Structure formats: structure tokens, C-alpha cells
UniProtKB/TrEMBL annotation:
Its main location: membrane. This is SLC13 family permease. Residues 206-291, 299-383 form the RCK C-terminal domain. It is a multi-pass membrane protein. InterPro entries: Cit_transptr-like_dom, DASS-Related_Transporters, Na/sul_symport_CS, RCK_C, RCK_C_sf. It is found in: Membrane. Keywords: Membrane, Repeat, Transmembrane, Transmembrane helix, Transport. The keyword Transmembrane helix applies. It holds the Pfam family TrkA_C. The lineage of its organism: Bacteria, Bacillati, Bacillota, Bacilli, Bacillales. The chain crosses the membrane at residues 6-21, 57-76, 141-160, 172-194, 403-436, 448-467, 487-520, 532-552, 572-592.
Length: 593
């Protein structure tokens, strides 16, 4: 074992620890690792930058724009709303929903699909007295399964395809060989979710409803009396911004309510200030002259909402600029026109002053939002809004544009299927048509593209070069073969799938694919196995993340809104992981070995 192998293994190990324990955002962790390899010469500057010029990267970017454009038209909403018109049991509802959702995910990015459908399903569940926790994990799983069917189904498929081409291999076509495996495991997975899987899921109320019911436990009011020494001063100047355990969120003056409450808001005699926090920590308020405390009022969350204020739930994303900062240091109110009234982590409310909470991926924010929230929250991907801020009215014009966009997209897919156009060229033409027919604006395209995903992919490709250049991939392959080769090819396939699956449950699917691909290629060279065999194994396994909420973006999105705990994913996901692994390995073995 050379020093390069030891050095590479050490820093790859540190990278995995950083990703698993969420020490920083995935991009920062992977970028730092790549920087170390460049500084030490294991990866050249040209190799480090080659990921940013990778064709798969730009293909994924164009797919983001297409998915965003179709999502904006409201077509997906309309299709699912029609399927939900009739009330039914959980089993019948899943039977109606999951096949078309998986079908959509085979061609569109699954993140916007889950973001779009989560509030629709929750509204429908509320009206039909069905726990949304019975539907949201199946929604995420169906989109993951559907993404394994085609080349464009998920970014992982495109990355492996491009890596194969770089290694002198043929690569995938739009349907083959992935559909040969993807269709059976999708049918099997949907059947499992409909017949058995939903029974493993809890009957939880969503966090939003739980918070609304318990709001009296942590909402209180103070009345500004005439003898308050700081009347006609701002909230900040009156010393009401930095109280221990107390966070002011709203002000009622006569019949007018001001939400979110800003530091520049001036307090007057008779104002009623609403605060949230630990009501056992109100001693500091009691010591302030001129504040009359009313913690036993009948006020609840609904009293704080009006025509300009909404009660909104959002999930902090893995790539958020808010991560690992105290909420009070993020300028949240000014940036989003919203105030956070509660933060839930792992299905439990964090009992501390809101402003002092350090945000982490998957945290669920319960917010009171002002009139500018919808506009401001669309500027970046800091969080996924999973309750509707405002019902969008889709016009006939929007609907026609949506169907026209789908028609253009399907025409391009047909041309790719018959190899008349390459995938890249077809998507380029599709984007050009969308732009010429004014289906999206350049400013919208910027928001549709998930830049963090592209940066992770580009940096991961550079880290993957380190595995090959240092000889680490060959060393790991030799050790893995030493343990599995005596048991035959089938055991080799199972071991590669299992290791890939375990990695993808705790780190990003794209990083997993890039790390495992060179190892898989070294194994195929040593045992004279068709490289396509292990390429398919790695591709499917890198996407098949069902057992944890942190392994795949769509699982993270439904984690809080469904009121799930970590063990709910284990109970529903591990059987699906095992079924997918057995089915994939069996199909690959029968078809290509």
C-alpha cells in the first residue's frame, strides 16, 4: 500500500464522516476534499476543473429548467387533483397515485414533483380524514423508483453514463439497459407500497396541525401600558429583541395586526405583543415595568393569520445558506418577510429561544409569513415550502402552455429514443423552444437550476479522479474481490450493490455513484466481467435510498411534513431496499452475466 493510497483513503474517510454527520453542507465537504487532493498533486488542476465542463452536468441543468417550466404551468397539479377527486381508502389512493407519479419521475426531476404534490396530498388528506403520513413516504419512494427507468430519470443515471463514455465504454441509451431493471423494480416497489408498505407507516398528524393544537402552550401576550418607559420607541430600542427564551412575533394595535414584527416597529400604549418561547422563562418580562403579561389567553395560531399573513411550513434543505447559523444571525425576517414561531427536528419541537436555534438540514420551520414571502422565498433554495402560501389559479392559457411544453418534450424524447438526436442536443432544442415561445424567463431559469447539485457533481467527479490516480480504486477492488470472489460472480454483484446502497443512505447519491464507479470498473477488469453489469448495479443502488430520510432529497422533503421519525423510514424502507437489491442483482445476473 503506497502513501498515496493511505492519504486518499484517509481524506475520503474524513469526507464520508463529514457528510454523514453533516459537519457542513455537502458541497463544502466535497469541495474541501477536492482542494486537498489538488494541493497534494493527486488530482491535477485540469482534472479538478474537468467536472465543470462535463456534458452530464449541463444536461442535468437543462432538465432542471424543463422540470421547472412544466411545474410552473400547473399541469402536474391538475393531473393529480383529478386523480384525487373521489374519496377512497389508503390502498386505493396509492393505487391511483403511485403509477403516474413514478411515470412522471422517469422523465422529470423528482424534487419539484415532490415539492408540488406534498401540499396537494396534505390538503386532500385533511379533507378526507386520512393521515398524510400514510401517503408522503410512498410519494417519495415512487419518484425514486421511477427515476431508475430512463437515462434522464435522475442525475445519477446521467453521471454514470458520462463516466462510462469517458472510460471508452458505450454508455446508456435513453431506455436501455436501465428500463430492463428499472421497470420491474418500480412495479415491485409500488406493489409493495400499496399492499404492505403503507401498513408500516404511522398515522401521525402533520407537525403544522400539532403545533396549532399546542400553540397555547408556548404563545403568550403582553400589553404595553402607559407607564412603559420605552413607548414610541422601536422594538429594538425598547430592549425587547434580546430577551432570554422569549421571541416577539406579532403586534396587535386596535384591529390591525403587524406580522412579521420588525426591529424598527414602534410600540405604543395599548399594543398587544404576541411572543413565542418557553413560558417558564417569562420572569424577565415580569421584571419590566409597564408590561402586563397574559399567558392564559385563548389565542392560538389561527388568530395571527389574516388576508396578508399565512401559517407556512418549510423544510431546510441540505444546501441552505441558513445552515449551521443561529436563526437570529440570518436576517430571516428581513430576507423572507417571515417570522419563525417553532422549529421541529426529528419530529420534536426544539424547546429554546427561537433566535438561538442553530439550523440543520431537515429542520421543519413553522412560520408566519407576510405578503412578500412568496416572492422572496423563490429567490433561492434555502428551504422547501411544503404548505401552499396561496392557492394558484391556473388559467386555460397556462394549461395550454403546459401541454404544449410536454408535447415538445415528448417529441424530443422520441427523437432521442430512435437515435436521431443525442440527449444533449434534444434538450438544447427543447430549452430553445421553451424560450422562443416564452414559457420561461431567464430569471426563472436561474431559480429552476439547483446550482448546489451541479457543484456537488462537479467536485465529486474530481474526487473520483483521486481514487483512480492514487491506485485506491484498484486496492479497494482487490480487497473486495479477495473476500467475495471465492463465492462466485453473484456474491460480487451483491457486495457492490450493498456497499453502494449503504453509502447512498448517508451521503449524496451523486457522490456515491462517482466514488463507487472506478472501484466497480477495476473489479470488472480483474474478473473479466462486462463493465455494463457493474455500471447498472452502481446506478440503481446509488438511487435506491429508502431507509433513511437523509440519503435522498425527496425523503428529506417529506420527513417533517409527514410527522415521521427516523425509525419510520427504517421500517418502511429496509424491506424495499432488500427487495430492490434482490430484484436488481437477479435481473442483471440473468441478462448480462
Amino acid at each position: 500500500m503506497t502513501w498515496e493510497i493511505v492519504f486518499t483513503l484517509f481524506f475520503i474517510g474524513l469526507m464520508l464522516i463529514g457528510l454523514i454527520f453533516e459537519i457542513a453542507s455537502p458541497f463544502i465537504v466535497i469541495f474541501f476534499t477536492l482542494t486537498i487532493f489538488v494541493i497534494t498533486g493527486i488530482v491535477s488542476i485540469e482534472e479538478a476543473l474537468s467536472g465543470f465542463a462535463n456534458e452530464a452536468l449541463w444536461t442535468i441543468a437543462m432538465l432542471f429548467i424543463i422540470a421547472g417550466t412544466i411545474k410552473k404551468s400547473g399541469i402536474i397539479d391538475q393531473i393529480i387533483s383529478r386523480l384525487l377527486q373521489r374519496q377512497g381508502t389508503v390502498k386505493k389512493t396509492l393505487l391511483k397515485l403511485l403509477p403516474p407519479i413514478a411515470g412522471l419521475s422517469a422523465f422529470l426531476n423528482n424534487t419539484p414533483i415532490v415539492i408540488t404534490l406534498t401540499p396537494i396530498l396534505r390538503d386532500w388528506c385533511e379533507k378526507n380524514n386520512i393521515p398524510p403520513s400514510k401517503l408522503l413516504i410512498p410519494l417519495s419512494y415512487a419518484t425514486i423508483l421511477g427515476g431508475t427507468i430512463t437515462l434522464m430519470g435522475t442525475s445519477t443515471n446521467l453521471i454514470i453514463h458520462e463516466l462510462m463514455i469517458e472510460n471508452g465504454l458505450q454508455g446508456f441509451s435513453i431506455f436501455t439497459p436501465l428500463a430492463i431493471v428499472g421497470i420491474p423494480i418500480t412495479v415491485l416497489g409500488i406493489g409493495y407500497l400499496i399492499c404492505i408498505g403503507h401498513k408500516f407507516l404511522p398515522s401521525h398528524k402533520p407537525i403544522k396541525d400539532t403545533v396549532a393544537e399546542q400553540s397555547r402552550e408556548y404563545l403568550g401576550e403582553v400589553v404595553i401600558e402607559k407607564n412603559f418607559p420605552f413607548t414610541y420607541l422601536t422594538i429594538d430600542d425598547a430592549g425587547l429583541r434580546n430577551l432570554k427564551g422569549i421571541y416577539f412575533i406579532s403586534l396587535l394595535r386596535g384591529k390591525k395586526r403587524i406580522t412579521p414584527l420588525k426591529s424598527t416597529t414602534i410600540v405604543q400604549p395599548g399594543d398587544r405583543l404576541t411572543f413565542t418561547g418557553d413560558l417558564s422563562s417569562i420572569a424577565e418580562l415580569q421584571s419590566i415595568k409597564g408590561l402586563q403579561i397574559e399567558t392564559n389567553s385563548d389565542m392560538d395560531i389561527s388568530d395571527l393569520c389574516n388576508n396578508h399573513t399565512n401559517f407556512v411550513e418549510a423544510v431546510v434543505s441540505h444546501h441552505s445558506t441558513l445552515l449551521y447559523q443561529k436563526l437570529k444571525d440570518t436576517q430571516f425576517r428581513a430576507k423572507y418577510d417571515a417570522v419563525v414561531i417553532a422549529v421541529h427536528r426529528k419530529n420534536e419541537r426544539i424547546h429554546s429561544k427561537i433566535g438561538d436555534i442553530i439550523l440543520k438540514p431537515g429542520d421543519t420551520l413553522l412560520m408566519l409569513t407576510g405578503s412578500d414571502f412568496q416572492k422572496n422565498s423563490g429567490k433561492d433554495d434555502d428551504f422547501y415550502v411544503v404548505t401552499p402560501v396561496k392557492r394558484t389559479s391556473y388559467t386555460k392559457s397556462n394549461s395550454k402552455r403546459g401541454w404544449f411544453a410536454i408535447a415538445i418534450f415528448l417529441a424530443m424524447i422520441t427523437l432521442v429514443t430512435f437515435q436521431i438526436l443525442s440527449m444533449f442536443m434534444a434538450l438544447l432544442i427543447t430549452i430553445s423552444c421553451f424560450f422562443l415561445f416564452r414559457m420561461f424567463k431567464p430569471s426563472e431559469a436561474k431559480h429552476y437550476i439547483q446550482l448546489h447539485v451541479l457543484m456537488i457533481i462537479a467536485c465529486s467527479l474530481g474526487v473520483g479522479k483521486a481514487l483512480t490516480n492514487s491506485g485506491t480504486a484498484q486496492w479497494v477492488a482487490d480487497k473486495l474481490l479477495y473476500l467475495t470472489e471465492p463465492f462466485g460472480v453473484l456474491m460480487i454483484l451483491i457486495s457492490v450493490y450493498f456497499i453502494t446502497m449503504m453509502f447512498t443512505e448517508f451521503i449524496t447519491n451523486n457522490a456515491t455513484a462517482v466514488l463507487m464507479f472506478p472501484i466497480a470498473m477495476e473489479i470488472s477488469n480483474v474478473v473479466s466481467l462486462d463493465p455494463l453489469v457493474l455500471a447498472v448495479i452502481v446506478t440503481i443502488a446509488a438511487s435506491a435510498s429508502f431507509a433513511t430520510p437523509i440519503g435522498y432529497q425527496t425523503n428529506l422533503i417529506v420527513y417533517g411534513p409527514g410527522g415521521y421519525s427516523f425509525k419510520d423510514f427504517l421500517k418502511a424502507g429496509i424491506p424495499l431496499n432488500m427487495m430492490t437489491m434482490i430484484a436488481t442483482v437477479t435481473i442483471v445476473y440473468l441478462f448480462w452475466v
